[in-house]
Amino acid sequence: MSEEIMINVTPTETRVALVENGVLQEVSIERATNRGIVGNIYKGKVVRVLPGMQAAFVDIGLERASFIHVADIAAARDPEKGHIADIDIRTVLREGQELVVQVTKDPMGTKGARLTTQLSVSSRYLVVMPGTDHIGVSQRIDEEEERERLRDIVADCRDELELPANFGYIIRTAAEGAAVEEISSDMAFLARLWQAVGDHRKQGAVPYAIHQDLPLAMRTIRDMMHEHVEKIRIDSKETYDKVKEFTHQFVPEAEGILEYYPGERPLFNLYSIEDEIQKALSRKVSLKSGGYIIIDQTEAMTTIDVNTGAFVGHRNLEETIFKTNLEATTALARQLRVRNLGGMIIVDFIDMKDVEHQRQVLRALEKALLRDRAKTNISGVSELGLVQMTRKRTRESLEHILCESCPACDGSGSVKSAETVCYEIFREVLRIARAYESRNFTVLASALVVDRLQDEDSASVADLEEFTGATIKFQQEILYSQEQFDVILL
Known about the structure:
Helix content is 30%, strand content 27%. The chain has 11 helices and 24 strands. Strands 4, 5, 6, 7, 8 and 13 form a 6-stranded antiparallel beta sheet that branches. The model has no long low-confidence stretch (mean pLDDT 89).
């Protein structure tokens, strides 16, 4: 499989696109005014403890207070068994207490950032977790022999470098096949980085940032570089030079495929990435067969509805449904990555009576999600024919980054019809006519509503004038939304 990474840089934002075989698979956006903070370490202050929720709010210097649950507090864990002890959060946290925390989820919507006191810092091959002696291996490394080799290397290097025994590690996917020298160098770098974090804990007035993760361009090279990536293109010379220096020091295998792109044609137009981003903001995703899926994102969950659309098949209805569902698994798996959808996801596949068809569709979905770097968990088909799944969410979705709630519909996705607004105007005129003696009214409304009042509903307006004994005039207001109107007494 051929992969390319495109990095588009402007003074206001950095965008990264992962393209597999010429098709966009992932998009990451980091704006200068709103950089992601996942991985950052802060020294904050507890502002409120919520014993009923076993949680607390912590001020780390952001607009909204951040949230930490007792499960994410290292002091609440049983040191021998490792799991959460049955304790009251008030025994480990109190209001006004200073606390060193790390962000695990960016602020999303009205929710503050999610925090943990179980700190970790990352490098190319490893994640170091002080406070535990555990050595874990990425689940994406399948071969047991390689997993054991990597565990042994890390354990031996920890002894050779005389690192503390309570330095635990997670071996990342990129470490597969890495030499002993590379992993040893990574461990030494992480030890220096953790020492710097420890030194910064003693500086500054609370709240303040102790450690910040790399910018998006460098983070992308660190996290997404592997043997299938054939080219990394960057359209900013300044960023290219910085990334080149970073790769030379930390990811030398990426130096040969790093490329500065000075072309006149915008980088994101090479594979129609701009068009794909626009499509990813739409509810409807068309399938090649003629079917389509509808994606609705809410604060609580994301729902995905699969429909046959114009696809009528060639044999029978069951076969048509089966083929549409199979095609939809690939499309929705890609959309989850492109849109960066997370949390609870409900997929409403077209009802399949054949149990074998249900099994094959689930297997196809699991296979399509294997390349997803975010952790996913899929349940079976429920009695109602729904597939429930979760996808780990750490950053805002593409829609939340690029869009805001519609001022006309206030985020509901729909507005009142002109007919409904006309009837509301009739009721308002009646209310005012009963309350006041004025017999002359002017109605200010949008052009569509005024047109209807003077055309389809003109007879109703005449009846209303006769009933109230008042004269009603209409005036179009180009700045009014379809739902907005005012009734003025003259």
